[in-house]
Amino acid sequence: MATLDLLSINKSFGAAKVLHDISLAIEDKEFVVFVGPSGCGKSTLLRIIAGLEETTSGQIMIDGKDVSDAHPVDRGISMVFQSYALYPHLTVYENIAFPLRVQKMPQPEMDAAVNRAAEILQLTDKLQLKPGQLSGGQRQRVAIGRSIVRNPKVFLFDEPLSNLDAALRGDMRVELSQLHRSLEATMVYVTHDQVEAMTMADRIVVLNAGRVEQFGTPMELYHHPKTKFVASFIGQPNMNLLPAKVLGSDAKSLKVELDGGHQMVVPVEAGLVSKGDNVEVGIRPEHVSLGDSGLSVTVNVLERLGGVSITYGAVGNGTRFCASLPGDAAIREGTPVTLAVNPDDCHVFDANGDVLSRQAAPELAG
Ligand SMILES: Nc1ncnc2c1ncn2[C@@H]1O[C@H](COP(=O)(O)OP(=O)(O)OP(=O)(O)O)[C@@H](O)[C@H]1O
User: Fold this and answer.
1) Which residue segments constitute the domains of the chain, with CATH numbers given?
2) In the chain, what percentage of residues exceed pLDDT 70?
3) Half-sphere exposure of residue 320, counting CA atoms within 13 Å on the CB side?
4) Predicted local confidence at residue 360, as pLDDT
5) Which residues contact 15 (CB under 8 A, 6 or more apart)?
6) In testing the pocket of ligand 1, which one of 9, 10, 17, 18 has its CB within 8 Å of the most ligand atoms?
């Protein structure tokens, strides 16, 4: 398998610049997920790695070798598409074997390679069927099988699960994670679904308008988002962002008043923020609990999922607020509740959307 390095990749389509100076070092055997909203450039970046799209400038290195000008088939990569791209008139065996037939691989070797892939993907008893006789999940596995037999240095996946229903997507997520472990392969996976990113990735690249917003492990992004964009993109339900005013600060903490009047001291450095400035305080729905003091929230909609109760309501001047409370929480639609918030769990974003650095030990600010 292989390392994959992107060095200052820029891409424009005519006058439109869609990728801005992207540099990433992806390690051998890593599962890296590119995630971001529609149009942020993730598919273009993947296609550039595959050689299906040219860069405007920058270099692509696979295992330390510059492949920027190499033909796609010479890069040692294999790509699985959202659309499966199977041949409907060929059997599963022939679909998986297709790249090996093109290479004119001898039949015994081809049988061994296809059978191994079919075994890994639990398709052994489907090899003589046509794609039309398979479920969506099985078809996607055939497409993955066609990648595996090529024994690539790097696997690329472009939204491979988006045509599947929710339950099957969940199963395929687990299968892909297991596949990654058993193949010990370097994999790059594109999705707009942050749950896929969080559950499968060793590290996630969050893209925003053609720029890398943050590159880190799922838990780094969840606990230490560098920007409001990352904070609100990672985590489900989305992080709440409450307008707040800075009342004061010292070296280690910031005192704020949230929309709705609740005041708290958050253990973050003030940086360039000072008294009177407007900031936003990020509070994850799962980081609040029913309490005697805290945020006063009117519950508009309540979704009881059994394990958790999700409430959608409003604080202060109507700012939306979502809370995820454990179990069958004792709350009712249309009634106000008080939600306790631990300042250690809060994030503060300045007017540019950048997070204020966190301090370990909170201290009261004046
Ligand atoms: N061939 C092309 N010609 C012109 N513009 C393009 C071309 N391909 C992509 N773009 C533009 O580049 C930007 C990034 O597109 P890209 O498909 O990489 O986004 P994405 O993040 O994968 O989005 P999605 O999740 O919707 O697939 C978009 O603004 C898109 O319109």
Assistant:
1) 4-232 (3.40.50.300), 237-349 (2.40.50.140)
2) 98
3) 8
4) 55
5) none
6) 18
> Is there a contact between 269 and 359 (Cβ–Cβ < 8 Å)?
yes
Distances (CA, A) of 312 to 295, 296, 319, 320, 328: 14, 13, 11, 7, 15
Model confidence over 312-345: pLDDT tens digits? Answer: 999 988 899 999 999 988 888 888 899 999 999 9
CB-ligand 1 contact for 55 (6 Å cutoff): no
Residue 101 vs residues 86, 93, 109, 128: alpha-carbon distances, Å: 15, 11, 11, 17
- This prediction has a pTM of 0.91
Global ipTM: 0.97
- 226 C-alpha vs ligand 1 centroid, how far in Å? 25
Instruction: Specify the amino acid at residue 347.
Output: H
| DSSP states of 225-252 | -SBHHHHHHSSSSPPEEEEEEEEEE-SS
Confidence of residue 366 (pLDDT cuts 50, 70, 90): very low
Residue type at 335?
T
